[in-house]
Structure formats: structure tokens, C-alpha cells
Amino acid sequence: MLECVENSIKVIVVGDGNVGKTSMLRRFVKGEFVNQYKKTIGAEFMEKNVFLRQSNTTVKLMLWDTAGQEVFNSLTQAYYRGAGAAIVAFSTVD
């Protein structure tokens, strides 16, 4: 069955490099975990439809996984425009 999604929200995920932003998103969207580090260059994009029981609606989350290394700051800031939410990821040991 094809599902019509009227509501969507752009969510950016920001934080330093190697804190697990990509792993967290991949686990949430695809249900998988890859135990291998691969640097994100610029940004990667994923989508997930989430059903909200309380309002009986489906929301499309447009998830933007941004690069954490300082060298990519000028690239990633362009992806912030239009975001309705942000997730800040960080390491508790750094």
C-alpha cells in the first residue's frame, strides 16, 4: 500500500567527527549497525516515515547527517537552512 505523507520535517544531525552520528541514523532508519568508521564528507541524506499515534498522522523525517570535521564546516552550514529540528551528538569521553 502506498502511503501518502503530508507532513515532513528536515532534521539535521550535528557534532564532532567520530561520535556516532552516521551509526545512530543508520540504526534508526535501517535497523542495522556497521562497526566500521567511514568519514562523512559534506552530508548524507536519509528518510524515515514515523507514525504518530496521538495525532494519527505520519511524518516524513528528512534526516541530514553532516560531516563533523572542522575542514567541512563551510560545506555543512549550508545544510542547516530550512531545518525544523537538530540533534546534537557528542562523545562523553572527549
TrEMBL record:
InterPro entries the record matches: P-loop_NTPase, Small_GTP-bd, Small_GTPase
One GO-annotated biological process of the protein: phagosome-lysosome fusion
PROSITE patterns, sorted: RAB
Keyword set, alphabetical order: GTP-binding, Nucleotide-binding
Sample GO molecular function, one term: GTPase activity
Pfam short name (any one): Ras
Name this protein carries in UniProt: Small G-protein
Source species: Trypanosoma cruzi
